[in-house]
Fold:
Amino acid sequence: MAIPDIKPPNTGPDVSSDLLLKFYFEMLRVRLVEEGIADRYSEQEMRCPVHLSIGQEAVAVGACQALQPRDKVFSTHRCHAHYLAKAGDLKRMLAEIYGKAAGCIGGRGGSMHLMDPDKGMIASIPLVGSSIPLAAGSALADQRTGSDRVTVAFFGDAALEEGVFHECGNFAALRRLPVLFVCENNLYSVYTHLDDRQPKRPLTEVARAHGMPALAGDGNDVVAVYQATREAVERARRGEGPTFLLFDTYRWREHCGPNYDNDIGYRSESEYLEWRERCPIAHQRRLLFEAGLLDPDQEEARIAKIRAEIDAAFAFAKSTPLADPSQASDHVYA
Amino acid sequence: MPDDRVITFGEAIREGLIEALARDEAVFLMGEGIADPSSFWGTTAGVVERFGPDRVMEMPVAENGMTGVAIGAAMAGQRPVISLHRVEFALLAIEQIVNNAAKAHYLSNGYHKVPLVIRIVIGRGWGQGPEHAQSLESVFAHIPGLKVVMPTFASEAKGMLIAAIEDDNPVIFIEHRWLYNVAGHVPEGYYRQPLNGPKVAVKGRDVTIVASAYMTLEAVRAAKVLEDIGCSAEVIDLRVLRPLNLGPVYRSVQKTGRLVTVDTGWVQYGIGAEVVARVASECFEALKSPPLRLGPPDHPTPSSRGLIPGFYPDGDRIVQEVGKLLAIDPERLKAGRRTLAEQRRDLPIDTPDPFFKGPF
Structure:
């Protein structure tokens, strides 16, 4: 079977100025939420592991902006950005991380399991690769029922080392499932560099070997992410099957936790600083200012509004009651 | 209404699948070799011809991924039935079964449901050896969020399979391979048997024997021999390993004061261990003797018919052990044991006993 070529998307007039602004403020909102978590983490009130997406916001926002509200997303332990980008409720997200009854899943999962199924944020699973088959199964269900919904599986570069990625890539291509495999390559699995885990090869070729088209894009360029994803979504909706999308990006902070860890020996400060220069949010902000789509007053007002929303959400999460032990045994069986 | 129709356990499973497929468009089957000439020990024979390859789906040889796909489809409202030829194949899927199937409802605070059936074949015979003949039901029975059922009789296999497909939880449906050719009276049409716990297979008053699947048939056989010498054994077919409802077992032990468990899988951390522990907690005062657990010895299952004798508990072993428990003179058991041996005659050790053809 010939694998169809996908034309590299061209940036251009089909991305409206409203959307360009939306990309910026959505990414900024994710950033500010996660910085808010990092700033408060030492209070030890958020008593669960947190895996921050700071530096990687463009993939979540660009990809989710290419989806419709009815489309579905599956994520991983690093799920905050996906949850927010898919319009997950912020108050319930923070309440979940604080272990509160009002959390998005009542305190049963914490930061690594965020979901808001009514918004299409179906599940986040903190085992590498584990949510990929759920996404493929979701797409199979839509195919069987004739729904035009599309499902996205977000995962990191290490998922390509897991058998289940290959099992699902094979099956999705075989059945032409309406699913997108979106790989956020942040170069590290915890402290181990991609080069120490995989042979040098284009990761897109791995997907192509399963018989599906693959596109690579700059994961710190939200417009590029959006356009590549939109292309793949349209293919899926047309019944043409899955697409693999590879976006290179970089996690700024430690694998798990609120701190920076460039000093502990697995990566260099200079590498971090190079990536920091390529901040997806600063990049988009520059673009907006250069195009005259944003002025400082307008920006300040929007940021103030976002900060107020975030402060209110933290206040809610802190003040709302903890989940009660009497609820711990609920919902073992349907 | 009495139903005189006699079909095998395997045919009953096939009927259950067909009834469920015909009833509900959301039901579909996935498996390796379910639409091929072997048709999964005949349990899917002709099913793909009737319902087509989109509902009877040959799947890639990718147990973990495909189990996850089935879970994802179930979360989206489908009712997949995935069939795994041997329990060892399910070990490749244990990550998805334990992490996602068993947890999705709990984790989502009750939002997601996983109406999934995973048919898993356990069993023995014909030199299958250490990695094709294990009985690992207790592995699944350990996990909250799973239901684990293990039918013995053909009518129940059909009714419990339909109930499992209707259930909104992931159900591990354990099929013992030596039951496929055992026949029984099976009603026609669509019916369900609730997944609600054990049933008394033989009424008795002197000793309670708790068993599952093929071991239930061995226990029934032992009970008949014991009955001939005036020893009344109550045989309880466990049927549902999780959620575990031992009410009928407690009531039986309150009456008999003696408990023997017979497992298809290993004794240590096995089903019998859980039954004995709970009976000890609930019925300690009623026990007249220490409970006894029977099962295969604590080593892997060898292939050679030279190594197999004595590996699996059988009716004769149960008779002997119950005899010891009740201090019955071994001489009195001799005639019955001889009958059991004669029923097998010179049948090879690695093939099912003709006694078990039924109908039960």
